[in-house]
Amino acid sequence: xxxxxxxxxxxxxxxxxxxxxxxxxxxxxxxxxxxxxxxxxxxxxxxxxxxxxxxxxxxxxxxxxxxxxxxxxxxxxxxxxxxxxxxxxxxxxxxxxxxxxxxxxxxxxxxxxxxxxxxxxxxxxxxxxxxxxxxxxxxxxxxxxxxxxxxxxxxxxxxxxxxxxxxxxxxxxxxxxxxxxxxxxxxxxxxxxxxxxxxxxxxxxxxxxxxxxxxxxxxxxxxxxxxxxxxxxxxxxxxxxxxxxxxxxxxxxxxxxxxxxxxxxxxxxxxxxxxxxxxxxxxxxx
Length: 286
Ligand SMILES: Cc1cc2nc3c(=O)[nH]c(=O)nc-3n(C[C@H](O)[C@H](O)[C@H](O)COP(=O)(O)OP(=O)(O)OC[C@H]3O[C@@H](n4cnc5c(N)ncnc54)[C@H](O)[C@@H]3O)c2cc1C
Known about the structure:
Blueprint (H helix, E strand, L loop, with lengths): L1 E5 L3 H12 L3 E6 L12 E2 L9 E2 H15 L2 E4 L4 E5 L2 E5 L4 E4 L1 E4 L3 E3 L15 E2 L13 E5 L3 H10 L4 E5 L9 H9 L3 E4 L3 E8 L2 E8 L2 E7 L1 E4 L3 E3 L3 E2 L1 H5 L3 E3 L12 H18 L5
Parallel strand pairs: 1-2, 1-9, 2-5, 6-20, 9-21, 11-18, 12-13, 12-18, 13-14
Antiparallel strand pairs: 3-4, 6-7, 7-8, 10-19, 15-16, 16-17
Helix pairs in contact: 1-2, 1-6, 3-4
Flavin-adenine dinucleotide (FAD) binds next to helix 1, strand 2, helix 3 and helix 6.
């Protein structure tokens, strides 16, 4: 039985590892980096086995090492579509197709984007939705982080190591967990701007100008970069109805989890569970 796992975040890697241990012919398809969303995390403090916490970068590095050490085959490409034809899954990648008997989808989430109309064209390349590609490159800059949840506060902590950060919140109360809020409050170069409504983002004099409203008054923030962390939504490739109905297709991890309980250990648990179910069902070659 050939199994393809789509997405090499914690969920997909856990499933691939366990399937490999059962002796399945397993392939992992990843469009970006092994480790997934945790590449954006500052420190992971709630994963068992790391009493001092572990940085997102190191955690992803270790996952990658484990996948490579086992010799699991990884294809770096994006799955655009999943169909089922003659009892086989057909996966359309960017340039070719792949076939498998069992398909595990662990494609995580994507950021909710700001409406394009509020971002002037020239400003767009200074607006980011994740920080993994830029966190080591931005130095001595003024950065605004839009949002009030865990990700916004986590991004602020990461970026404050080398920059000045303002967290811009629409409401009065942070939605992030207390430990993240407390940490931000203790960092001098992080400020919290409350009750701010962002109206327009323009590029002027080599800066981003954030036109906002606070208490019915117009206020502006000038920054070098804006990081938008206003939530995430499920991220799925196109899946045909027939494929979705198949009991040989599994959705695991954040793509299958409600927003308030998206956590790495839950994703890993779901990856293990899917692999165990594949093994226990003992499907014969179809
Ligand atoms: C800033 C931040 C900090 C966090 N901190 C913590 C923490 O401290 N503790 C904790 O438990 N959780 C934390 N999380 C949450 C955690 O990152 C997620 O719950 C976890 O990564 C979900 O794992 P996943 O495998 O389901 O999805 P993801 O990690 O999102 O992985 C999905 C993978 O699929 C790939 N992919 C997507 N679509 C395709 C496609 N079509 N083809 C091929 N590949 C594709 C993506 O590139 C990605 O690598 C944090 C999240 C953020 C944003």
